[in-house]
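User: quick one, fold this
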Amino acid sequence: MLFVWCATQVDALIYQARGSAWLARCLSRVAAGRSASDAREAAASRGPGAVIGRIEIPRVGLSAMIADGCEPETLRRAVGHVPATARPGESGNVCLAAHRDSYFRRLRELGEGDAVRLTTPGGFFDYEVISTSVVDPDRRDVLRPTREPTLTLITCYPFHYVGPAPDRFVVRARAVGESRAALRADRSFGFGWDFVPAVLAR
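Assistant:
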């Protein structure tokens, strides 16, 4: 068991390092003259499980890569982007999920006004926390599209619960600053809540 745990941790560290290097290369190309929209489309075409950006929350010391999708392997390695919700850099509700005992373990410390930044090949997108809440795992409305640029972070709750956790902890943030002007508004979104009970319940 210890060997499996160590192997999983090493795999996640390697994935994070490679993802960070890929994002740095993308941003360098944009700085060198490549259009941000081209870089964004290239990231979108990488497929499930691939890195699409980074989330940073200075208040709790979080800096982690975001991967496309919420499959078990993806969530072992990164913060997952919930399928069928807005992608970072697009208008609507960007929904991200991670396990309570890994990247989102300190989410409970967040409060109103805390800053969150998403970095993608298309640019930097800043958000400000407006609320935290505990919801039933069947609550689907937190993933629905929004008129205003929104970020929703989801993990299991209680944080120290032994076994599959019965609830979900949800952080809602709004876009602030110049990131609003950079957001796309050319896509309609559904929502994909089905992953939550099965994948995050641990």
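User: anything notable?
Assistant: The beta strands are 51-57, 62-68, 79-81, 93-97, 115-120, 123-135, 150-157, 167-175.
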